[in-house]
Design brief:
The protein is 45% helix and 19% strand. It is α/β, with parallel strands linked by helices. The chain has one domain: 2-enoyl-CoA Hydratase, Chain A, domain 1.
Length: 165
Amino acid sequence: MPTFQQLLDELNKRPQPEKQVEYIDSFRKQKIKEIKEITKRDVLVYFSDLKKNHPAGAITWDDKTCFADIVEGLDKKGVDVILHSPGGSAEATESLVCMLHEHFDNIRFIVPNMAKSAATMMVLSGDEILMDDRSELGPIDPQIQINGNFVPAQTLIDGFEEAKR
């Protein structure tokens, strides 16, 4: 299996920018197909764009509709979820986890790079976790969304304690 850097290098060899999106989509589908052939299970991919600011790359309630549409018709025996995310809403994550567990008897998470905060919670809900020495899970850092921004829950608790003093 190639490393992530080898995959990026292969993608970057394509000189035609106008065909890049088409090629990347085809490349992605081929790699998912190869994983499915190896594992003999359906594969879901949840990959956040970490270049975007939070919450654009975060797990949110909007993901629930997408997950609901994707899981329909998949083999209930088991699924592999490839996850790469900085985290997001703990409540939305719990809802997604419940949905996955309703639909599948066995859930295996594959973390090719990182799953932080709420994404760590999602991964820990699985029956199996596949990682390598480059993969990372993060501390579970509950976040509360205020005015569209995620704020660590501990910050709010500390603020109330400070106000009391």
